[in-house]
Amino acid sequence: MNTIKKDVTIYDIAQQIGVSPATVSRALNNKPFISEKTKTKIFKAAKELGYRHNNFASNLRKQKSHTIGIIIHELKSNFTTLVLAGIEKAATLAGYDLIIAHSSESVEKEIANANNLFHKRVDGVIASLSFETETLDHFEPYYDKNIPVIFFDRVEEDSPTTKVIIDNYKSGYIATKHLIDQGCQRILLIAGSQKRNVYYQRYKGYADALRDHQMDMAKEQVFINDLSEAAVEKAVDQILKMKPLPDAAFITNDFTAAVFMKKIKEKGLRIPEDIAVVGFNNDAISRMVEPELTTINYPGFQVGEVAATHLINHLQGKANLKDMSTIIIHSELIIRKSSIKSKKNP
């Protein structure tokens, strides 16, 4: 039967080389007034004995965990990957660890994640809300303890909390106006749940662009769904029954736009000649489809880096999140072949 060895302590190191435990502690924490010769002995003994620094106990004493919690609604998107990379860069530079929690678009899981991170004593949280989230009550324990929380991408717009977003309304407007400028007259929209700011604001931008250019917004040309492949296939079946057919589509997610393009081409329609297409996010897939997809660049890495930097600056006393509410990251339209209607096209 294997026996579990007990953890090596500073007392074991002190006993082995004949110094006080206080001297060992100061050396291991790089405190001054310890000679290099003594430090070398201590580090050598620590390595030989298999000593591990007890960060947990140290953090409890300091009331700091040097850990940031992250709550995201899904893991598989290119945008999420970029956000996490941006957060990781800023956190690593500042010496913070990350705990990533995933809600899978479930408010129950989001609440459980928030509670779990709270009890893990994270120093702060960076979160993007699920489709189902209607209140921020589960973050109240953080506010009560003055633990900072920053929201990104999917946020509660009316809340006084710090938010890092792009101007989704402006982006939706610009995307739609681009299609109008190409001469498109019947522009359909495929968007996600209107419960969340990102898709609601993109929808508003679309609607206002049509209105400002004296174009009708037919209800049958607006598809609100979960942006899944099955939902797109169902939408395409409905679209093909329209008379006349739409001549453009603004689709508020690049993966969904790529699926739409595939399904449309399978039905014998040409892009952009029959239907011009604009997506959203500038995911890698937008450059891999044929023709390449016009899209809104949503700089996920910058969103993550800015959110983490502001949170860490607050934790280090360099800034105060109470002095800022909404931080808007620049986004722009990237024009590619999927939306360019040549005058020579029939």
Describe the structure.
The structure is a single chain. The chain has 346 residues and is α/β, with parallel strands linked by helices. It has twelve helices and twelve strands. The strands form three sheets. Strands 2-1-3-4-5-11 form a six-stranded parallel beta sheet. Strand 8, helix 11 and strand 9 form a beta-alpha-beta unit. Helix 5 runs parallel beside helix 12 (300-315) and helix 8 (168-181) runs parallel beside helix 9 (197-212). The mean pLDDT is 89.
Write the layout of secondary structure elements.
Layout: H1 10-17, H2 21-28, H3 36-49, H4 55-62, E1 67-72, H5 78-94, E2 97-102, H6 107-119, E3 124-127, H7 140-144, E4 149-152, E5 162-165, H8 168-181, E6 187-191, H9 197-212, E7 222-224, H10 229-239, E8 248-251, H11 254-266, E9 276-278, E10 295-297, H12 300-315, E11 326-328, E12 332-334
Parallel strand pairs: 1-2, 1-3, 3-4, 4-5, 5-11, 6-7, 6-8, 8-9
Antiparallel strand pairs: 10-12
Helix pairs in contact: 1-2, 1-3, 5-12, 8-9, 10-11
Note the main attributes of this structure.
346 residues, 14% strand, 434 Repressor (Amino-terminal Domain), single chain, alpha/beta, four-stranded parallel beta sheet, Rossmann fold, 3 domains, six-stranded parallel beta sheet
| Annotated CATH topology of the largest domain | Rossmann fold
Instruction: Please report the number of helical segments.
Output: 12
Question: What's the CATH class label of the largest domain?
Answer: Alpha Beta
* CATH architecture classification of the largest domain: 3-Layer(aba) Sandwich
Overall body shape = elongated
Q: Main β-sheet, in a few words?
A: 6 strands, parallel
What gap, in angstroms, lies between the N and C termini?
81 Å
Order of strands across the main sheet:
2-1-3-4-5-11
Query: Total domains, how many?
Result: 3
Helix content: 40-55%
CATH fourth-tier homologous superfamily of the largest domain: Response regulator
Overall number of strands: 12
| Mean pLDDT rating | 89
**What structural category arises from helix and sheet content?**
alpha/beta
Poorly predicted runs are none
Strand content: 5-15%
Instruction: Report the C-alpha radius of gyration, rounded.
Output: 27 Å
Order of helices and strands: HHHHEHEHEHEEHEHEHEHEEHEE
